[in-house]
């Protein structure tokens, strides 16, 4: 089997989402133990607006479309795993995405910003402390949620997703025997993307030199698309040259962080991940 296309993925509730540039598949195990697979084409704005095919701009679009698709898959998996057939409307989906983004802004931007502003007025020290607090917020959040059993299962499916993609990229048949040989960490993981965003934000936010509290805060919000675009390109570059001895050290922090966000799956979870990827590459 030749790995001719780039595959990404995401763990969902009792299942796995796999995607290529043109389509995606979600495999979820229902209460009866059957694996339900849903496959659809991906409609992307880059097909209509060529600017989103260019470096940097494609990262901004990719982040937005990944968020929307991810929420869509999560909600679908919740219904399938519970044996339900409900669907969210477009308005309800938009509200779910908005609330999640708002919560992320609160935890990873607003709270660190507030405490850093209390600690110092020096611009350099403020940016360093703000970045450190964001990093601690990310670690703390991931460690905190990892104690919940439902999240642990999500992390196990996350591991199954990575192991299955590794098997595919090594041109192996997508059967549990082959998949089990691989590690749960992957350099293209969204966890690595989050870490790059946090680190890169320290540099980008330092461009805001205003002493005004309001301008500083909203300036950070306006620069989020810039950080997303740059982070996407950096992750894409580091993944492409991950075997280069000069580039590999740059990927290690993100891989280490995946020791929190991925766990070894069982055979049934691997079967679900394999079913999702097979729907795309068979």
User: Can you list the strand order of the major beta sheet?
Assistant: 1-2-3-4
Q: What is the molecular shape?
A: globular
Number of strands: 4
Rg (CA only): 20 Å
The profile of the biggest β sheet is: 4 strands, antiparallel
Mean pLDDT: 90
Please identify the oligomeric state: single chain
Helical percentage: 55-70%
DSSP strand content: 5-15%
Give the SSE string.
Answer: EEEEHHHHHHHHH
**Main structural class:** alpha+beta
Number of separate structural domains: 1
Output the number of helix runs.
Answer: 9
Unreliable runs, pLDDT <50, ≥5 residues? none
N-to-C span: 9 Å
Structure report:
With 282 residues, the protein is an alpha+beta fold. It has one domain (8-276). It contains nine helices and four strands, in the order ββββααααααααα. A four-stranded antiparallel beta sheet has the order 1-2-3-4. Helix 1 packs across helix 2 (90-119) and helix 6 crosses helix 7 (213-240).
Summarize the structure.
The chain has 282 residues and is an alpha+beta fold.
Descriptors for this entry?
9% strand, 62% helix, 4 strands, 282 residues, alpha+beta
Question: What is the topology?
Answer:
Layout: E1 8-12, E2 15-19, E3 23-29, E4 35-41, H1 57-81, H2 90-119, H3 123-145, H4 149-169, H5 176-179, H6 190-205, H7 213-240, H8 248-261, H9 267-281
Antiparallel strand pairs: 1-2, 2-3, 3-4
